[in-house]
Amino acid sequence: MKRLSTSRAAAKFLAATLVIGALGAAAPAQAARCGNGAGGFEAWKQAFAEEARGRVGAAGIDALMDTHYNSPTIGADRGQKSFHLSLEAFMTKRGASAIVARGRQLKHSQAALFSSIQSRYGVPPGPLLAIWGMETGFGAVHGNQHALSAVATLAYDCRRSDYFTDQLYAALELIDNGRLSASARGSMHGEIGQTQFLPKNILQYGVGNLDNASAALMSTANFLHAHGWRAGAGYQPGEPNFEAIQAWNAASVYERAIAIIGRQIDGGGE
Questions:
Q1: Rg (Cα) of the chain, in Å, rounded?
Q2: Domain containing 90: what range?
Q3: Phi/psi at 242 (nearest 5 deg)?
Q4: What is the pLDDT of residue 91?
């Protein structure tokens, strides 16, 4: 048998070593694994940051590393009992009659704004005011949680990890491009602004600063329009625009409450 020369043998060994090294380099780092308690959050955060590098800029990574496990968020996520109430009980708990009364006042006092929104997006004042009133009491209560920590906690938590991982990437992108402060405060699930937008919806439908009422209402109308709202069509259950309201919130009792309150504000019945 003819033996390889020393130089050829060395070359072959080197080539094999490079292939093995390349395969090792190509192997992905251990994926960030979801968890069901605070204990694994810091390790998950480190793993997620490694996965995110290259997709997320330095500002976003720095903001992520400053997040903490938010126990109140988990408590709220597990305890959304009001969505299991009857429609009548839900509307009473949410103060529907007060929302209607205030909504009618705002529809009149801000008539030019709502006319402009309706001309642009086709959405009448009623459902926008119903959402605004239901979400934050017309801006009275925005929530006081560290929004990014809330979203990161839910991305780590196994119950809806995939959904909130998308929201977390959106939040980090917003921070990178200066549209969201790393210290922003929001509600229990990380919703932001007067009508409570999650980060991915801010990216896709946000118009201006959502802490501003006009911008939040335009953004909400933009969301509904993008989800099939048809100008002049009805928005009660069974009517064409009810599906756009369903896209806003998946809870049936919430969807019906928005439709009813909106109709009452728009003058379509008690």
A1: 25
A2: 83-142+194-265
A3: -65, -30
A4: 95
